[in-house]
């Protein structure tokens, strides 16, 4: 059986990544693509790398007949997303890739995003989309909120450790290295090749990055108490890939065992042999997440490193994984492609 | 029906690319992987991006039971390849990715490669592996010689034009821009990130690049007379992608029509609308080749530009396409993945 | 004696490059920096790499007291530049880096740039700024028009050959590879790291690039007849560096001799030994231009390749070289820094 | 007065960087260049970017008449360096860029480098070359041991804080991002463009990087007690630049004040306004170090980030700064060039 899929916001990177992935999916068919400012254009004009595909012409959201759609991906900016989703049919299955439905607490949303939430009804029913930890809820959900790409990476490294209490909850430091596609197709000087290539810097320093809202919510939830991590993202001269280096206090071997146990049987999470370091080079273009653990020379300290592709496992791949669950398909369907190396 | 596949020389880039592609192939199964100097290692140690795959341990060629193999890819260096292939079972289907069986004339081989050919029997039966132009021969072949990656790109741009006589055969200039993976996993100073990134240069200038042997052979064959092109490759700070800019004399519209007609129905060759320029950005990681044609401001001159991924359409993807034909599978099987962008 | 310098348009790349160079100049002092939209900001906010310098605050052009300025660099967009320069004091020495005063023929200007020229008086007195070929005129000039960066590179490769008639004037093909800083600090999707890195493409194909106006003017002038070259630029995933590959007909040895003779004694032009290929890696950040010549395997054909840094020798370094001449300083003053490698 | 300079190991990156810098130095003259395996070659063959310079032919060390040399830079591998230096004239001024004379304790040297020290006499007299903290000792020294590039960066961020006791000495985490030129001109697969570009990974995880020997020695010395930091380096897809992100406990404002005070008047160290983050983009090719401080959202925690160019301020620039002191020149001589951006 073929599922009819709509993608709203198809002119951004996560939209294009969804098309890339779904083009190889055995039972999904893209029935509608929206891009308000580029409505009327062909996808091949906006993304020439997709020119071999026979895709619907880009349209405005209002032109889509959602009664013919089985599942809708929203790859719109936050704030816009909640408005659009509030207006969609209430029975339509939706995977939202924006930040709008990630935070359970509207006050937390307003704190991190600066605007009040205007779709509280939908926000209430939304399920947090970190597939490996919300699988059953996602399978039963109508609306799934895709996670932040940094938030996903940090959680893959730390969530089982916090849940099992094998690390000191008050001493977690997360140093993240992010590729530039995480910033989207934004026209900013700092994202130009001339200004980004060949160098790197921290940004959103001091605990101001919005994905901290997700860390706070999820880590506190699994710990059963407030957990606040120290989190500093760095912008890298690369297009895809997040490397999260977590500095934690605890027994490194226990930490490794905890992660290995937590991810046993997971199709996309690979816990490396103890002492090995993962690399974003080895996950590019794929839905895999590699995790490594090592003991520091200082007794009682460990390093946990997670690597994934922000556009795939960090957003569009995760979204497809969730959609598979929501539509009763094999969770890995369309997602087992190997990374691209070199 | 599942075909058992062996890959000889699996520790190089084209070997790893074959594994990447075949891992998604519905009816191919990798039964043996050789890498003489890395025998005994797991593929995941040599190429950690493939760690999610359940692959045979790397072995020496002599350890493979070829009676259980339906088709063997040889991704070995030239000269080694001919020796290995000469010693393989005479009925084994083989796709060779080296230069050893590309040239029909042993004297031409010796001229370009500097050593006499030592497997003339096999050389005689080998079919040149440019799928779009040797489809029937390849389907019937036992031994197929994969083309040079530069040679493939240049031929996609020029071959129909030479065959149809729509350009001046004595005035063809081919300026090629090649990504570094075309040089293989070679330890040379000039291929280090520190020395290659952020700059570019021509190499093998003056008509000394070995792929000229293929151009001379194939272009002369289709023209029915000697055709020598002027060919200068340039090394680019990128990992995948060949852009061939061909400067030709002829009517640009006729040239565009000739190419469009030649590639009608071809699943992997996309001729762009007249006047548009292709980009290697739009074919990365895929088996597609994009071709553009424009008229120069100077009357009677045209530019033909072809873009492909050297590791996919330029070598391992082409090899798989040929293997599909040789084993009676759909030619596109395992090869329709979209390019990776960004 | 110290010369007081003003730079108009200091918030662009060529402006910043001028500041970088002049900061090391023994007898130039930057007295004023303008940037209309960033007036009131410090240079260190716009370009943090210059934070060690004690620079004047960015101002509007109208705020500069030009009676205190010995020479003014205009690093403004074309069209704006002519308007600004027409309004500056008529005795002020000016080096203009825009396209506005490069073309002698106002009709040619209008053809290539799409707008009529509105500063014909200044246009008449302007001297074309290709230092090595207009040295005496520049030393005596009030207004010098810096060349296009591509135009400079192509002329270094070809100008002596056209002047001496050692190549066929009707068969010149120029395939250029340009770094992205040549496009300036422009916010365009194609210049984003995510879209530019790791790939390449031709642009302005078919003879539509504006620098052809300069080639036509200068090559025709030195040839004493109309000369039209075929010119195709390609955008490279690198920040600095132009590589011009010229395909010409003529005797390669004569060509090499002609170039070697033409550039004897030139401090910035290095003609490599016959058969060697230059690389943009070896001129980055410097004012040098490397030129190589090789014979093709086809009798009577040669390749001439020139490499320079578009921001230095291709624009701001050239501008400083010209300013040195105009102010009676040593032509090489402030310009002898070695390239940055790696 | 001109000082005659020798550079041993001129075929590596730090050797080439020394030549780049010294070529602009007003009173240094390169009198000898050694490179054992490339003896007899011209520097322009080994590093074509230096072809404009009139340099001595590369020779073997034994061929140099050290009686004519005022100061010798040793840019040799560790272990080799100590042997060579032990055999040089005992009165020759030397700046060593290797690791051989950095550690005061021979046992520490053997622990981190794996071989016993064989030049203990020289080791005793060597002065640690972190200019800003050993200025007077360096001016009086015969033999100065250049610091590790990572060690320099971490110390610029942390040393005043440890000396003044404004941070918790037992809770220092240093997450370092290093460019690839720090690995030298080594032929390793992981340093190839194809394998390094577009991704990143930690290495030497668990506190095994050799520069920890320097951190332990220097931080313990200034603290007057044992101080062990947790240090994890990451390899970046860039050629130049180290970014050290230090996670510390203390009052962020005090930390900023402490650093600002410590570096007042320092010509090369720039402490940014509170809350700003430095970038390696803004120091490339220069001898500057930019340092930023921010408070984390978690009370009592701060982030200190330092950025410098590993080949300049991290090694060859530092070496020249030290040589200036040793020869009585202005410390900044030949070192005030602005960074290269973009």
TrEMBL record, chains A, B, C, D:
Subcellular location: Cytoplasm
Active-site residues annotated for this sequence: 149
Domain Semialdehyde dehydrogenase NAD-binding: 4-141
Source superkingdom: Bacteria
Assigned protein family: Belongs to the NAGSA dehydrogenase family. Type 1 subfamily.
A Pfam family it matches: Semialdhyde_dh
Protein name from the UniProt record: N-acetyl-gamma-glutamyl-phosphate reductase
Molecular function in Gene Ontology: N-acetyl-gamma-glutamyl-phosphate reductase activity; NAD binding; NADP+ binding
Gene3D superfamilies, per the entry: Dihydrodipicolinate Reductase, domain 2, NAD(P)-binding Rossmann-like Domain
């Amino acid at each position: 059986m073929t599922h009819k899929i709509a993608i709203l916001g198809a002119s951004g990177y996560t939209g294009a990544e969804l098309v890339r992935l779904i083009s190889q999916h055995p039972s999904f068919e893209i029935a509608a693509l929206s891009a308000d400012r580029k409505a009327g254009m062909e996808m091949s004009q906006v993304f020439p790398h997709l020119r071999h595909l026979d895709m619907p012409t880009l349209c405005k959201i209002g032109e889509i007949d959602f009664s013919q759609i089985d599942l809708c991906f929203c790859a719109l900016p936050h704030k816009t997303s909640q408005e659009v989703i509030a207006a969609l049919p209430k029975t339509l299955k939706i995977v939202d890739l924006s930040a709008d439905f990630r935070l359970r607490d509207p006050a937390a949303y307003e704190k991190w995003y600066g605007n009040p939430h205007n779709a509280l009804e939908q926000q209430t029913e939304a399920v947090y989309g970190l597939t490996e930890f919300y699988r059953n809820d996602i399978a039963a959900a109508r609306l799934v909120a895709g996670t932040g790409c940094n938030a996903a990476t940090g959680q893959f490294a730390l969530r089982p450790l916090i849940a099992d209490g094998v690390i000191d909850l008050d001493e977690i430091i997360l140093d993240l290295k992010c590729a530039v596609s995480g910033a989207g197709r934004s026209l900013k000087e700092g994202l130009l090749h001339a200004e980004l290539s060949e160098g790197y810097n921290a940004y959103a320093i001091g605990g101001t990055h919005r994905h901290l809202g997700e860390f706070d919510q999820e880590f506190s939830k699994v710990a059963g108490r407030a957990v606040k991590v120290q989190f500093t993202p760095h912008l890298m001269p690369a297009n895809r890939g997040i490397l999260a280096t977590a500095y934690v206090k605890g027994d490194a071997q226990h930490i490794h065992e905890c992660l290995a146990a937590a991810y046993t049987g997971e199709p996309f999470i690979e816990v490396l042999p103890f002492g090995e370091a993962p690399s974003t080079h080895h996950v590019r273009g794929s839905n895999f997440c590699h995790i490594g653990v090592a003991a520091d020379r200082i007794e009682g300290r460990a390093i946990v490193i997670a690597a994934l592709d922000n556009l795939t496992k960090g957003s569009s791949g995760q979204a497809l994984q969730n959609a598979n669950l929501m539509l009763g398909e094999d969770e890995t369907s369309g997602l087992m492609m190997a990374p691209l190396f070199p």
